[in-house]
Amino acid sequence: MTDPQYEIFRDPYRMLILLATLVSEQKGETTLQFDNVPYYENDTFLIQHDKFVYKKAQTEITWFQFLGRDIACNKDYTREEYNKMFVDCLASLYNIT
What superkingdom does the record give (predicted)? Predict the structure, then answer.
């Protein structure tokens, strides 16, 4: 039996792009490559070529081949819950408490 996959809203998708863009910038890349999202991991989240994992809630967002294609999440969140998750990830990227 496979885990259910839920549709991701437009706003959280945009926040995921922002997070991936900021990771790219931290790695010295000038632009985000949607077909080659850079690998980054800390205690809060992991992002790589075809998935994002929010470790605090075991949330996984996946996509096929490039960021945005067939994007799905393993949990059904409200927009507010997505926003809190991504704000936490952004804070962890810059070590803001």
Answer: Bacteria
Rounded CA gap, 77 and 82, in Å?
Answer: 6
Q: How many domains does the chain have?
A: 1
Has this prediction a pTM greater than 0.70? yes
- Between 10-26 and 79-93, two packed helices, what is the crossing angle to 10 degrees? 10
Residue 1 falls inside a structural domain: no
Please provide the size of the chain in residues: 97
The DSSP bridge partners found for residue 31 are: none
Cβ burial of 65 (10 Å; 0-12, 13-18, 19+) is exposed
Which residue range(s) make up the domain with 84?
Answer: 6-93
78/3 Cα distance (integer angstroms) = 19
Structure confidence by residue, pLDDT tens digits, 53-62: 999 999 999 9
With respect to residue 12, please indicate whether it lies within any of the assigned structural domains. Answer: yes
